[in-house]
Amino acid sequence: MTTTTAFKKRTTSVSKPMDRDTMEQFKAICDSCNQQDWQKRLRAIDDIQDWVEKYSKKVRSTQPGTFISLVDTYCMLIQDNNTKV
Q: pLDDT value at position 51?
């Protein structure tokens, strides 16, 4: 009796690079998550969530390394010392 395991290879479509304005907006939102004021950080969380929802298809189809700062930003916010954030 032989068992074969088939792995589905993830196929990603090749898409155009994200335009410069969109990337600048993304970088600005990530930077705003580093604010000292917890209320500004809280607003930045909403902004980054809205941005990700709006551009989710582009984020998924872009090379993974392009948005590594997105993961870094989320990790930083999860570890925030202020429980309100």
A: 93
Query: pLDDT tens, 13-69?
Result: 555 667 889 889 999 999 998 888 889 989 999 999 999 999 988 888 888 788 888
Q: Strand ranges (DSSP E) for 1-85?
A: none
3-class secondary-structure state, position 35: coil
Q: What is the pLDDT of residue 46?
A: 93
Tokens encoding 77: 């916010």
Backbone phi and psi for residue 82, each to the nearest 5 degrees, phi listed first: -85, 115
Tell me the residue range of the domain where 60 lies: 20-78
Matching residue, tokens 């916010």: 77
Reading the block at residue 69, the tokens are: 């700062």
Return all residues near 34 (Cβ < 8 A) that are at least 6 apart: 41, 76
Flag whether 84 is in a domain: no
Residue 64 located in a structural domain:
yes
